[in-house]
């Protein structure tokens, strides 16, 4: 039976209607959620410019010096204070000729999560191309520690934490398909190809302790080393993996977070700070609920456009503090307008009452006194 002209007209009009609806409601579709109980205080933070983009993770050595940060061109820099500024400390690749301070060059590596082994002074580095590496207290060229686990290559080492009593460390391999440069494609693809890996430093053996995760990003150990937290950014879920005690070998949901997560850091008291790339929006919910939508965007949009959409057209800063025992949200801090902070990747609280922040793209770190939000 032939299709009537009326039906054909309706079919032809459908794309136009969809386009008009999207145009009218576009700002609402991509706008970040408004969260209750947040403290919009982060715009008062002090900005410390970095001579390269993307100080994604921060770390301090056993003498309290630093922070040390890994940046886009493959270097690890050390902050020496206002007078000396940033100095070169280490790098993950000997190939330095074509390294860019603004764009990732795979041969130069991309240092992400940083963790000092306080007993030895070695700095361990999750590189988004090479795997987990380490460099001695004097810095220089890092050496490879582990780049595969259970027969699968480590494609996207992201963040790690060290249990010095057990001589083991844990880290996230965010994807077995993509490296760091495709980070947002990992997020929107819906692929559950990420895993959490345990590495025994004495036996030099790597084993997978959790698998089939949608973009596990940040990772941190509890204060007593009994469990590991992994931030599954693709689902907004933080999983608790028990590694010691009667629950060892089991896992459970620890917290649900209102946005795409990056790194997580334990506080001196045993709580946790989680950095969010942005808050959730209707747009984010749609493509996370339907993987085919995300894969469509992967094929049709540039990475810069995907970043713009995820941020609701307005890059901003947001971090969440969680109770170290229950996972309950204790604080939500924002720079909701992005006046000072953008693309936050880590929040690191020090015993001196300072809270430091890194950024996965912006060429700066920030620091604020915790009294700024404690007194609000």
Helix content: 10-25%
CATH topology: Neuraminidase
CATH superfamily: TolB, C-terminal domain
Counted beta strands? 27
Low-confidence stretches: 7-24
CATH domain class: Mainly Beta
**Backbone CA Rg:** 21 Å
Shape label: globular
Measured by DSSP, the beta-strand proportion falls in 35-45%
Write a structural description.
- Helices cover 17% and strands 38% of the residues.
- It has a single domain, classed as 6 Propeller (Neuraminidase), CATH 2.120.10.30.
- The longest helix has 26 residues, at 5-30.
- The protein is α+β, with helices and mostly antiparallel strands and 376 residues long.
- It is globular.
- Mean pLDDT is 90; it is low at 7-24.
- Helix 3 packs across helix 4.
- Belongs to the strictosidine synthase family.
Question: Concise description?
Answer:
With 376 residues, this protein is an alpha+beta fold. The chain has six helices and 27 strands. The chain has a single domain, classed as Neuraminidase (6 Propeller), CATH 2.120.10.
Present the secondary structure layout:
Layout: H1 5-30, E1 46-49, E2 58-59, E3 68-70, E4 75-79, E5 86-91, E6 111-117, E7 122-127, E8 131-135, E9 140-141, E10 143-146, E11 148-149, E12 152-153, E13 157-163, E14 168-173, H2 183-189, E15 194-200, E16 205-213, E17 216-221, E18 227-232, E19 237-242, E20 251-256, E21 261-266, E22 272-276, H3 282-289, H4 291-300, H5 303-310, E23 317-322, E24 329-335, E25 344-349, E26 354-359, E27 364-369, H6 371-374
Helix pairs in contact: 3-4
């Amino acid at each position: 039976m032939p299709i009537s002209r009326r039906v054909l007209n309706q079919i032809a009009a459908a794309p136009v209607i969809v386009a008009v609806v999207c145009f009218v409601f576009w700002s609402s579709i991509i706008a970040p959620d408004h969260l209750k109980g947040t403290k919009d205080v982060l715009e008062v933070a002090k900005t410390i410019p970095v001579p390269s983009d993307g100080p994604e993770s921060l770390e301090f050595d056993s003498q309290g010096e630093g922070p040390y940060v890994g940046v886009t061109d493959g270097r690890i820099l050390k902050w020496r204070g206002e007078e000396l500024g940033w100095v070169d400390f280490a790098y993950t690749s000997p190939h330095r000729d074509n390294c860019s301070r603004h764009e990732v060059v795979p041969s130069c590596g991309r240092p992400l999560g940083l963790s000092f082994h306080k007993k030895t002074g070695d700095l361990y580095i999750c590189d988004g191309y090479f795997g987990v590496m380490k460099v001695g207290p004097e810095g220089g060229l890092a050496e490879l520690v582990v780049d595969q686990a259970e027969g699968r290559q480590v494609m996207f080492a992201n963040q790690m934490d060290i249990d010095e009593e057990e001589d083991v460390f844990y880290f996230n391999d965010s994807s077995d398909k993509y490296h760091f440069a495709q980070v947002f494609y990992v997020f929107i693809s819906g692929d559950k190809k990420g895993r959490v890996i345990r590495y025994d430093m004495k036996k030099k053996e790597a084993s997978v302790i959790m698998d089939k995760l949608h973009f596990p990003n940040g990772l941190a150990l509890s204060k007593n080393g009994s469990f590991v937290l992994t931030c599954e950014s693709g689902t907004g879920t933080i999983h608790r993996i028990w590694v010691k005690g009667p629950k060892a070998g089991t896992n459970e949901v620890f917290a649900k977070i209102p946005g795409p997560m990056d790194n997580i850091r334990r506080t001196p008291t045993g709580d946790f700070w989680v950095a969010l790339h942005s808050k959730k929006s209707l747009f984010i919910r749609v493509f996370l609920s339907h993987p085919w939508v995300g894969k469509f965007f992967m094929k049709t949009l540039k990475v810069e456009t995907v970043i713009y959409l995820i941020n609701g057209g307005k890059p901003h800063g947001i971090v969440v503090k969680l109770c170290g025992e229950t996972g309950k949200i204790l604080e939500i801090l924002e720079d909701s307008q992005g006046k000072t902070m953008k693309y936050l990747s880590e929040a690191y609280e020090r015993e001196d009452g300072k809270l430091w922040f890194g950024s996965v793209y912006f060429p700066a770190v920030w620091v604020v006194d915790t009294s700024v939000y404690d007194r609000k």
